[in-house]
Amino acid sequence: MSDIVLSVTGLTKTYHDHSEQSLILKDLSLQVEEHEFVCLLGPSGCGKTTFLRCIAGFEGYEGSIKINGSERKGPKNDVMMVFQDFNQLFPWKTVEKNVQYPLKLSGIRNAGELKAHSDRALSEVRLNGYEHYYPHQLSGGMKQRVAIAKAFCLKPRMILMDEPFAALDAMTRRDLQKQILELYNKEHCTVLFVTHNIQEALILGTRTIVLQKEGRIVLDEPNLLKKPVTPADPDYGTVWKKLESAIYMEGDR
Ligand SMILES: Nc1ncnc2c1ncn2[C@@H]1O[C@H](COP(=O)(O)OP(=O)(O)OP(=O)(O)O)[C@@H](O)[C@H]1O
Ligand SMILES: [Mg+2]
Question: Kind and range of the H or E element at 102?
Fold first, then answer.
């Protein structure tokens, strides 16, 4: 059996707004093994982003979240998060400086070493030649590639991706899906990937989880479709329908 990278036990998350309390995640438990690519689906508002933010260490919570066996007490660079938002880069820093930022935070100070890391990460996402561009000079797809390079360059144990391709056109999205799969295989990392797109989950994932209200897991199964996954696979339609009915089971179509 592979190593357990993420172990979540009895995770409960409540937001307190003024006098109101809202329960977002209730007693959620989940384990993810090394080199799994877990795709997380579920209706809007069921707590997917909140779940990722808790794992990344951005939120307080009740229960336990362990990465490699140690309790998560705040953000650390062994877990990196990529957001949907095209504005997740520092607008005043160049592409290269954005990618180097987490490296600097991790203690790397040597200019040559920083450059070697950022050059490598940028070439993985095919952005060589754009090192000195600023975010406003890039397309949405290029910004997401910088965010991916930034997340991967420290070789984290786990990458959390929150609908990173949702705002991209279909062609760019396909291109980035291919790149993320290449990186995942090359870097042997573990991924937790939120998407609203069933096809994307089936193309990318090795395992699919569907959440409902309060983070209740209603489906958790390996993605056994033969890679590379195509809708022409005879089992594709059946798996697609099963996921669709798990996502829409509570009727908020
Ligand atoms: N900072 C906050 N304070 C109070 N409530 C919040 C906060 N952030 C999120 N919520 C609430 O938590 C619930 C879950 O939100 P979350 O963003 O995790 O859902 P989601 O599954 O990611 O939805 P979507 O698919 O639309 O991105 C929502 O009801 C939202 O209003
Ligand atoms: Mg969300």
Answer: helix 95-105
13 in contact with ligand 1, CB cutoff 6 A = no
Q: Consecutive 10-residue runs of the chain (253 residues): their mean pLDDT?
A: 90 90 96 98 96 96 96 91 90 97 93 96 94 96 94 93 93 93 93 97 98 97 95 96 92 51
Pocket of ligand 1 contains residue 47 by CB under 6 Å: yes
- Dihedral angle over CA of 149, 155, 156, 158, nearest 10: 80
d(CA 166, CA 177): 11
- For residue 41, give the ligand nearest its CA: 1
- The Cα–Cα gap between 45 and 214 comes to 9
What's the confidence (pLDDT) of residue 17? 84
Set out the domains of the chain in order of their start, with CATH numbers.
1-78+158-170+184-253 (3.40.50.300), 89-155 (no CATH)
Give the ligand with the smallest distance to the CA of 60.
1
Length of the chain: 253
What local confidence, expressed as pLDDT, does residue 227 receive? 92
pLDDT score, position 251: 60
Residue 19 burial class via C-beta count within 10 angstroms: exposed 0-12, middle 13-18, buried 19 and up = exposed
Q: How far apart are CA 135 and CA 95, in angstroms?
A: 7
